[in-house]
Write a structure and sequence with these properties.
The structure is a homodimer. Chain A is α+β, with helices and mostly antiparallel strands. Chain A contains 11 helices and 14 strands. In chain A, the strands form 2 sheets. In chain A, strands 1, 2, 3, 4, 5, 6, 7 and 8 form an 8-stranded mixed β-sheet that branches. A 6-stranded mixed β-sheet of chain A has the order 12-11-10-13-9-14.
Chain lengths: 395, 395
């Protein structure tokens, strides 16, 4: 399904010759008038040059464009990398006639390799020329690296007397040869939202979606989620608690959809598993337990083998740092109870749980019996293909 | 090479019928007279019944025996598990004519399955009968689960006018179907060492050996390292700083040897990689970085593929929580510098690093350029066989 246009934005994707194998590799999203902007970037200390720029530019609250290339991450590239990130950002700003600080650059692809800035800059006029309201499909294709397919999501919501729309495009599929497969997500909305409200909405919407999704627990040097709001839908700005909550909730739906597509696209993965930890003593405890389960190689290989190995799940929670009494744990796979207050329910439920685990998409729920807090994490299984993809010598 | 006898101790290993496929599965180590004892047990909240007992008994400082079964972990087995752990401990104590609180039980094998206590108890007279000073090989075989072979280590050291010996036996090989492959290590020495000194020596010797070794980052419900000291070598007790340091250093050698054998035995693993992080701001930072590198699936698959993918190594350190400036990092694989103060050294060193990585055993060293602290971690590569071993449905 093509992404419907969002008032105030145009998209494009062109071939700049950055990807070795060819194909679309330069994507552009442009706001017709200055838009509010917010971004979340990787917390990895090893942070790519474009990410540093994008973070700084997003902090100003106003933006005109996202400039994204695939095929080269421009990470671990030192002074030269900083220069090319800035040069390409300036070239894009010039082509659009805006202040360079209103352009958020992003790169994804091989780490440590220099970005061929001249190719990117040479392709910019074509990218600007190609901009159109229904160009999201080209943009989505241009930012892909190891993805099996493009990832887009869309939501509409009535706010006051207006109907606003939110559209998102993402890429990412775990880590694969030869890339650090960066997670990138770009969202645009025609809602009128000031930067402070937009920042909070993005942070809240990412908390249990992008910030609770793992393919392999490794974070990239280039991860970023960014949103621009054009206000082209008209009406008063989103400001009241109620409007902000409704906007955040829809934004969360869009991010959830994109995050699920990314996790489901993990290399060699066949199952998307939603890990839900409930009845924890604190939200921190719930997150620790859910994260430990979602990233445990033992749990993930059991998911791959469709093996209801509840011992591994409980043991992962046990080493997570979350405080609980194992004798009070109850564990479900789908609707099947495998452990009830610390006691295994036996072989027949295990067989039914195994059947649940043959599905492409299911839920594992662990009650810690220690409080009322909860958290969730999106996980995928770990298969031999993941190893095959990641173990090849880069050559 | 068979393990030489250690004065004051006898070992045995017999078949009790606990392992489904048969073979030795009950091991016993007995001190001829009351020995000093110390133990370190899993920090996992989900802790097997025998571990709880062993920890409590070790805290008393005096012990007579280690009682170990393979084939069943007696973990997540509730009240019944606690009863069988206690019943088998009492039966062993009765057979030896000692206080049950002087027996440290340990179990390894399938999680969640009940321990067939009656079989274990029925085999005890044979296990006691079989005890002999040179019985360590049978003991080593009896505690194995998924290990490719027995794991033993031995050291001698002059202390004062005496020559003392330390012998260790371990099992463990990462996590494999259908077990949580527990790490167990049992060490005996004829040195005269009081329990407080023994405890400190064990903790210090484990810090950068057993507590810095990963196959897959998962910790078992049953992990334990325990040591008994008989004093049969004679001479004054190990008490001075100098003697304690010498004893600890030799104990560390024994544990290091055992830990290396365990990591090298990780399923599907072909390479033992020593990760050394130096010039860190604090020891905590060094440990965080070394641990993140050693457990990163991306780094481990690169080791498997003999791929000098330095970006993954530096990025793992970057997300570890250690504080450093990536521009000051220097990275070696073996003696080859791949990154010097943040700048890649190019394709020729990468090719030489690849050659280093074809060896079964090599070192990766990362200088953070942020201080003087250091830490190391033992890691292995992650191959498709690991997934194959761990993904099968338990049936």
């Amino acid at each position: 399904m093509p992404l419907p246009p969002v008032a105030g934005f145009r998209w494009s994707g062109v071939e700049a010759g950055i990807k070795k194998r060819g194909g679309l590799d330069l994507g552009l999203v442009v706001a017709d008038s200055p838009a509010s902007v917010a971004a979340i970037v990787t917390t990895n200390l090893v942070c790519a040059a474009p990410v540093v720029l994008a973070k700084r530019h997003a902090a100003r609250g106003v933006a005109a464009a996202f400039l994204v290339n695939s095929g080269c991450a421009n990470a671990c590239t030192g002074d030269r990398g900083r220069e090319t990130a800035w040069a390409t950002t300036v070239a894009c700003a010039d082509a659009l006639g805006v202040d360079p600080r209103r352009v958020l650059p992003a790169s994804t692809g091989v780490i440590g390799a220099p970005l061929p800035a001249e190719r990117l800059i040479a392709a910019l006029p074509r990218a600007v020329e190609a901009l159109r309201p229904d160009g999201a499909a080209d943009f989505a294709a241009a930012i892909m690296t190891t993805d099996r397919g493009p990832k887009t999501a869309f939501a509409e919501v009535p706010l006051g007397r207006k109907r606003i729309t939110i559209a998102g495009v993402a890429k990412g599929a775990g880590m694969i040869h030869p890339n650090m497969a960066t997670t990138l997500a770009f969202v645009v909305t025609d809602a009128r939202v000031g930067a402070p409200v937009l920042r909070r909405a993005l942070r809240d919407a990412a908390a249990d979606t992008f910030n609770a999704a793992s393919v392999d627990g490794d974070t990239s040097t280039n991860d970023m989620i960014a949103i621009m709001a054009s206000g082209a839908a008209g009406g008063p700005p989103v400001q009241s608690e109620k409007d902000a909550a409704r906007f955040t909730s829809k934004l969360r739906d869009v991010l959830d959809h994109l995050a699920r597509m990314i996790v489901a696209d993990g290399e060699g993965s066949r199952h998307l598993v939603e890990i839900e930890v409930v009845d924890a003593r604190s939200e921190r405890d719930a997150r620790l337990a859910a994260g430990a389960i979602a990233t445990s190689p033992l749990v993930k290989t059991a998911f791959h083998g469709q093996d209801p190995n509840w011992g591994r799940i409980v043991a992962a929670a046990g080493r997570s740092g979350a405080r609980f009494d194992p004798e009070r744990c109850t564990l479900w796979v789908g609707d099947v109870v495998l452990l009830r207050r610390g006691t295994p329910t036996g072989p027949e439920p295990e067989q039914r749980a195994h059947e649940v685990m043959t599905r492409p998409d299911y839920r594992v729920r662990l009650s810690l019996g220690a409080g009322t807090a909860r958290a969730r994490h999106l996980a995928c299984d770990l298969g031999a293909d993941y190893v095959r993809c990641n173990a090849d010598y880069r050559s």
